[in-house]
Write a structure and sequence with these properties.
heterodimer; A: about 80 residues; mainly alpha; about 75% helix; B: mainly alpha; Rna Polymerase Sigma Factor, Chain: A; Arc Repressor Mutant, subunit A; 2 domains; about 55% helix; elongated
Chain lengths: ~80, ~200
């Protein structure tokens, strides 16, 4: 199967997730081997997703966990006191 | 399950592995730290109250995060009822062509570059610029690293819908960020140009 660039873009997310069937995967890889634009689109998308997933990109507010469990504890204590 | 038998203290430990996901799911809808934290707390209290309705065949993580998303959406709807100007039309999932930024080469942006505040802000702004339905799925899958099946169960949509939204979300991110981050020969604005020695710092 010969793919054009638009076909590759449409499958790029599934390709990154490794969920495309083998035959399609091979066709994508053949296209990527000869199309520097699609190879750059794939590399940039993958790179951006790696950056997004890093825990430095999105940090929890300082003290979030402590406040969450303190509120949960207050709720449990009030609930027990009420029963 | 011991918790169902009344040992509610264990609930703290049950929630702990997922408290981060609860916060980021809420934040993906509300885009405000204070509101996201309030919704995260309300989510956990609601889960405690409704634990008896949790069905063991579903995952606790997807059940908990779906409560967070519903709570956050409810709060957003309420805010929009008050502020009519903020209503924006939901994008049509079936139409519209999504294309990436076509670049001729890509030089890897290393993880160490995240030490730079400008890069973190650029990534955060790109996610915040996504329409809500795409932001939610990107945060679940690519920030919280849920599987496609878990994201589908959490959002209450099919895996096919998750994949379609994810494709568009990822291409929108690439389209927004690749021209700004590309330091290769084809780079446009290149705000993160390397120094002469090739270092990011």
């Amino acid at each position: 199967m010969v793919l054009n660039c638009k076909h590759v873009w449409k499958e790029i997310s599934n390709y990154i997730d490794g969920t495309v069937p083998l035959e399609l995967r091979e066709s994508i890889e053949q296209h990527l081997a000869t199309c520097r634009h699609c190879a750059a689109v794939l590399d940039s998308t993958r790179n951006i997703l790696v950056l997004v997933a890093d825990e430095r990109t999105f940090e929890l507010p300082v003290g979030y966990s402590e406040r969450l469990h303190a509120r949960l504890q207050r709720e449990m204590n009030a609930s027990e006191a009420g029963t | 399950m011991r918790i169902l038998a009344g040992e509610r203290e264990l609930f703290h430990e049950l929630v702990r592995p997922y408290e981060k996901s609860v916060y980021f799911a809420s934040f993906s809808v509300l885009q405000n730290e204070h509101d996201a934290e309030e919704v995260a707390q309300e989510t956990v209290l609601k889960a405690l109250k409704n634990l008896h309705t949790f069905r063991a065949e579903s995952k606790f993580s997807t059940w908990l995060v779906s409560i967070a998303l519903n709570e956050a959406r409810g709060r957003l709807r309420h805010a929009r009822l008050i502020d009519f100007d903020s209503i924006d039309a939901a994008p049509d999932e079936e139409t519209g062509e999504f294309t990436p930024a076509v670049i001729s080469d890509w030089r890897e942006v290393p993880l160490e570059a995240l030490e730079r505040k400008e890069l973190r802000e650029l990534l955060q702004a790109a996610i915040q610029g996504l329409p809500e339905m795409y932001r939610e799925v990107l945060v679940l899958r690519d920030v919280q690293e849920f599987s496609i099946a878990e994201a589908a169960a959490t959002l209450g949509v099919s895996e096919g819908v998750v994949k379609t939204r994810l494709l568009r979300a990822r291409l929108m991110m690439q389209k927004e960020l690749a021209p700004k981050l590309n330091t290769g020969r084809g780079g446009l604005s290149g705000i993160f140009r390397r120094r002469a020695g090739g270092s990011w710092f």
